[in-house]
Write a structure and sequence with these properties.
178 residues, alpha+beta, Aminopeptidase, eight-stranded mixed sheet, 8 strands, 30% helix, N-acetyltransferase, GNAT_dom, N-acetyltransferase domain-containing protein, Acyl_CoA_acyltransferase
């Protein structure tokens, strides 16, 4: 699967992408706002699971390599998974290598995947969660057209303390207005 955006290609991973995926997951900034980072064994297991997702039917989880359109270099990961089938809610997430931060790539990838969810996955609602201290992720959610639903108080245990979590969403009817 490939989704083409203005400057990016969002595509399924192949077995050749493991070294990139490992680099992304081993970067300490990728998990700065999480309680734990995966170890080498978990990274390998997660990657094998991602490869298996591509043949699931129906597919309820997409982990896609974010690549530059110009030279197809992988720079990050964007994902979307079915959270709640009854209300057609999907959850989007993202991570980029730090050298590609603050260039609009995360926003473009998230916005593109939200559009795909509404046009191809029959989504009614797309949500994103972020540690309340992760201001960069909050900015991505806002720039991607998501609206803040609220704060979930002390729902994350991060860096040995309880942290609040932000929840943002985009709704199907809002996507048709844009």
């Amino acid at each position: 699967m490939e989704i083409i955006a203005d400057r990016l290609i969002l595509r399924d991973y192949t077995s050749n992408d493991f070294s990139f995926y490992e680099e992304l997951e081993l970067n300490p900034l990728s998990h700065k706002y999480e309680n734990t980072a995966p170890d080498a064994k978990q990274i390998k297991e997660n990657f094998l699971s991602i490869l298996t997702q591509t043949t699931s039917d129906p597919r309820e989880h997409y982990d896609l390599a974010v690549c530059t359109k110009q030279n197809r270099t992988p720079i990050g990961n964007v994902s979307i998974k079915l959270n709640w089938e009854e209300i057609r809610e999907w959850e989007v997430g993202w991570v980029l290598l730090p050298e590609y931060w603050k260039m609009g790539y995360a926003t473009e990838a998230v916005k593109t995947l939200i559009g795909y969810a509404f046009s191809s996955l029959n989504a009614h609602r797309v949500v994103a969660y972020a540690n309340a201290e992760n201001l960069q992720s909050e900015k991505v959610m806002i720039r991607a057209g998501m609206i803040r639903d609220g704060i979930l108080r002390e729902t994350r245990f991060c860096n040995q303390q309880w942290c609040d979590e932000l929840i943002y969403s985009a709704l199907e009817q809002e996507a048709t207005l844009n």
